[in-house]
Amino acid sequence: MSTSTALQGSTALVTGATSGIGKAVAQNLARQGAKVVLHGRDQARGEALVKEIAAEGGAARFVAADLTDSADTLRLVSEAGDVDILVNSAGLYEFTPTAATDAASFDRQIAVNTRAPFLLVGALAPGMAERGQGSIVIVGSSGARMPAPVGAAYGASKAGAEILTRYWATEFGASGVRVNTVSPGPVHTEGTKAMLGEHIAVLDKTNARGRAGDPTEIAEIVSFLVSPASSYVNGAVLFADGGELSALPA
């Protein structure tokens, strides 16, 4: 567990911060000294996390917003204020076959997984560039590269985030703003448990490590990517999947 002060004095906005990977990321950044703006949809869970972080000596505040709504996403920006770190962790997945995925489902997944990061980066990266520094991390998914019989819309939304990472790294890199993606493979979260139910153990059989990841493991990678330790890493897509993609043909 990171306990350094590498991010002391910085402000971080973490979307999807009230559960799973986003929660672990927010807690880890706070432990390293960042003031964290927590985003989520559930006010009670958000306020509970603020108290958890404060109990550990960290600083956080919560802003509720609906990322499927463009206006509400931009309101989040205005309430967050100037930030030095942006972690787009909020994600929506509806694993259904293509024929069973209606337009509304497709639009929801694109809105949260691709459009919201686009709007947030467009609104926040210019300010980072003016200040001469900033770090942006997209939490992607190995699903962008690892096809499955269901979930094509989800895979497309996460593949879009990968492409945006490379464009943004090129667009903002010379101004001191770095943009990277960490793409987890199977990770034990509340969301995966709700989706798989009693079949949750299947996650531990999908990669070379022989187990699914823990949100804290992904949080450590995010902390590295936003810290000075990764100052020469820009435009990277880092897979944290326990070797899942290594099973694909070269």
UniProtKB/TrEMBL annotation:
It comes from the Bacteria. It comes from Streptomyces asiaticus subsp. ignotus. Signal peptide: none annotated. Belongs to the short-chain dehydrogenases/reductases (SDR) family. Its EC number is 1.-.-.-. The lineage of its organism: Bacteria, Bacillati, Actinomycetota, Actinomycetes, Kitasatosporales. GO terms for molecular function: oxidoreductase activity. This is SDR family oxidoreductase. Keywords: Oxidoreductase. The keyword Ligase does not apply.
